[in-house]
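Troubleshooting: if your tokenizer reports a length mismatch, compare against these two reference records.
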Amino acid sequence: MENNSDYAKLKGRATVAPATAEVKPKTSEDLPPLTAEAHARIKQTIADVKEHLPEMVDMVKDFHAAGLIDGWRSVTFKRLDDEPA
């Protein structure tokens, strides 16, 4: 046996090729338009994160650049004193 995929074939298991496509961040054209309420929520989220967790701002930017999130619209901020949903 040469590698794990040969073993998988012998056992009748499917093999998965490694991903080769690069993930590209979505652009604003790819996303639905924001409602006024969503835009207000995003502005408040940014303000809360900058005030309480400023170290997260760069992480949000990095996640967006890597295509992991759609920007600030994907970020939520939950205070510990908020009522449970």
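Reference record two:
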Amino acid sequence: MRHPTYPAAGLAAVLVASVLTSPAPAAEFGKIELSTVPQLQAYLEDRGYLQENSELDLFHTGLAEPASGISDVYALQYLDPGSCGSAGCTEIVVTRSDDDSYLLYEEWLGTGMEMLDSETEGAHDLLIRTDQGVLTGRFNGTKYLWSPASDKGESGEGVTAQAAPAVPRLGQKTIRAGGADGLVETMGECVDDRVWHGYSEGTDPGGGAMGFGPCRTNKSSNFLLFSCKPGAPDVTIDVNLASRDLDDSDPVTVTVSLGGSNFQFKGTALYDVMVGEVLPELEPITLDHPIFEALRTADGTGSISINGQTTRMTLSGAAGAAGMMRKACAAPLAAPDSQP
């Protein structure tokens, strides 16, 4: 078989043209191994969503071409007992941006996640089974929107969306540790790896708290934390957000904005030797402060500002957290003869 011949310069031009016009390798969609995406694996480990005993199904659902700054979309169905409860197992959606950063923006409790053949805006549709029923998720270029679906089989074949409004994502969930008298935590749906947590300390030591922070965090690591003891008049405010404009002993004003209302808290900036940062130390408030009623009824998003430096915050879970804290802190102190 004879092959065409080209002059040297012409051959180089042909090769360059061939590289430029050849289609890019097709992205692999469907169920994949987490080990094939090491950056995602590192992100999940850093956020507390990957433990030594974690078991999960990982789906690469899109995108063939970047859209809205998003290059890839991943959906994860956890399977291990530590990620499962009476309402199902943890299910999350993570996106990768064009700058290679990852963002967990959605979390459900459910079972049987499936990636469907149908696509919307460059990403495959999803099917999940939750305590709100069987739901179909369709990508809108930025995130999945969910609506009730009619379940027609394990494979997802024949599953069609009903003419119904989109349903909310994971609602308030409550976690109890240490028996009936132990710590109880409540939280809303995870949005951009942020959520409001509510805490009830049980009978010993008693009291409660509510805080805004990462979806998986301990109480003291919340960015904003209100804490109180039963029957005590004061609610302490801890802010674990550093500001580049703060120096030790500076006066500081922290403003929390909720639904058009602003709540200001005064204090002093102090250097925290434990974290090596200058953080606000604020004056305490009382349990009947209007911010708690605002948090109980708030929805959408708000913000927290330190001397004008603003951080946006979701209000997901704020209502349930405020209710739990108020109930835990409103309990009367033990009678004098029962105290040690």
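Descriptive notes for reference record two:
- The longest strand covers residues 102-120.
- The first helix runs from residue 8 to 21.
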